[in-house]
Amino acid sequence: GNSVTQMEGPVTLSEEAFLTINCTYTATGYPSLFWYVQYPGEGLQLLLKATKADDKGSNKGFEATYRKETTSFHLEKGSVQVSDSAVYFCALSATGYALNFGKGTSLLVTP
Amino acid sequence: GAVVSQHPSWVICKSGTSVKIECRSLDFQATTMFWYRQFPKQSLMLMATSNEGSKATYEQGVEKDKFLINHASLTLSTLTVTSAHPEDSSFYICSARYAGGEETQYFGPGTRLLVL
Fold first, then answer.
1. What is d(CA B96, CA B1) in angstroms, rounded to the nearest whole number?
2. Which of B101, B102, B98, B81 is CA-nearest to residue B17?
3. Which of A26, A31, A56, A89 places its Cα 20 to 30 Å from the Cα of B84?
4. pLDDT tens for residues B64-74?
5. SS (H, E, C) A1-49
């Protein structure tokens, strides 16, 4: 079946550090891939997405590239800020619009 | 952007009682809403897909008679946990998709249920 595996947290970084959160997936067909972010006390928000191989999704300085050969969609940001502290979820959509989520990775950025 | 609300944000109830959770799309029409359940440190697990005006589609292993879903309008879906038991305690999250067919789902803030 379809599944998403992402690195476990929590991840703690200093402000302006480089961020990578790994995400790999298993799916039949050609899924769309997403990163969602959940700030404290809020609902999940779409951060970025990619719908086909080699597409790069980007938003707010975050990027992720759909790599079919490695079945990966790693999230990166060159310089994190304290305001980026949140839980990040990798997800895929392979059948209709239902989403399969990873377990989430908590990120804490310290000043 | 699109806003989805849930009510209540948290609820405590006695075992055997029923609890209703509302999910509303505030500034858009949603033909499809999804209900997820999240356990601590776990993924969001899809429970059911709710289409306006028709019966919900439940995922394997989810009891349709226990988790009643009603999607009576393009802006409201409700999840009723009937005869709740302590094992039903969890974080329930809904999402909604635009009526226009866009793939993106917009999520509510979640409802935390504690059954004593």
1. 13
2. B81
3. A89
4. 999 999 988 88
5. CCEEEECCCCEEEECCCCEEECEEEECCCCCEEEEEEECCCCCEEEEEE
Q: How far is A59 from chain B (nearest CA, A)?
A: 15
Contact A43 B46 (CB under 8 A): no
Integer CA distances (angstroms), A99 to A53, B36, B116, in order: 18, 10, 31
Residue A70: exposure state from Cβ atoms within 10 A (0-12, 13-18, ≥19): exposed
Give the distance from CA A58 to its chain's centroid: 11
Q: Are A105 and A47 in contact (CB under 8 A)?
A: no
Using the beta-carbon criterion (under 8 Å), do B110 and A43 form an inter-chain contact?
Answer: yes
Residue B8 Cα distances to A58, A86, B21, B31, B91, angstroms: 34, 23, 6, 22, 12
Of B6, B30, B34, the closest CA to residue B20 belongs to B6
Least confident window among A42-56, B71-85, B87-101 = B87-101
Q: State whether residue B49 is helix, strand or coil.
A: strand
DSSP β-ladder status, B4-7 and B19-25: antiparallel
From chain B, pick out residues whose CB is under 8 angstroms from the CB of A43.
4, 6, 93, 106-110
Instruction: Identify the CA nearest to B21 among candidates B94, B88, B90, B86.
Output: B94
Residue found by looking up tokens 């038991």 in the block:
B85
Read off the pLDDT of residues A2-56 as tens digits, 9 standing for 90 and up: 899 998 889 999 999 999 999 999 998 889 999 999 888 777 889 999 999 999 9
Query: Cβ B43–A46 below 8 Å, yes or no?
Result: no
Amino acid at position B11, single letter: V
